[in-house]
Amino acid sequence: MSELVILLSQYDTEAALRFSSSLPLPELSIDIQSEQLEEREIPRINRHEKTLKPQVTIEEKKRKGLSLTQLLKRKTKRREKYLLKLQTVGKYDPTRPVKPDPERWIPKNQRSYAKRGRKNRGKFVGGQGSGDGAQKDMIKLDAYARAQLKKEEEAKLEETRLKEALEGRKPPPGKKGRKKR
């Protein structure tokens, strides 16, 4: 009811006043002295204790009338029922039980299967001016070296043409003599 009054106070003040008159007044104990209030400890409220449900221990269940054997039987029945449910869905096969992870005691980031991309860990990639890639680029971009290679290839080609011409096989191409007029 108090929440309704708060809501109405934002939209309709007259209706809020009508409903607020029907609310019960809080009971205040006037007989407590201010000195006694100052001497009292501040009440501590733990929010987690309110939200968590208290777990019933075996001793408390025994006090309620259930014996330990009855509790264990109930637990096994529930487990069997749950496993049956998993079998029908296809998530559990009793003939092939799942082996527990042997690395379950090691932190997850240190386990062998959690280390992605560690194959080429020692491989140096992308350094400036080193490695085979840089050497190939240097050869490709060196204009003087490329010109020298081209001259050497032309010289070898000319040499093979002259040898063939001297042997009488073919006349060298591009060396046709002058035309007479």
TL;DR of this structure?
The chain is mainly alpha-helical.
Describe what you observe in this structure.
By secondary structure, this protein is mostly helical. 52% of the residues lie in helices and 0% in strands. The protein has eight helices and no strands. The longest helix has 25 residues. The radius of gyration is 47 Å and the shape is elongated.
What are the defining features of this structure?
181 residues, 52% helix, single chain
**Which band does the percent of strand residues land in?**
under 5%
Oligomer classification: single chain
Helix- and strand-based class?
mainly alpha
Low-confidence stretches: none
Total beta-strand segments: 0
Mean pLDDT: 79
Q: In terms of topology, how is this protein built?
A:
Blueprint: H1 2-11, H2 13-21, H3 34-39, H4 47-51, H5 58-64, H6 68-89, H7 131-141, H8 143-167
Helix pairs in contact: 1-2
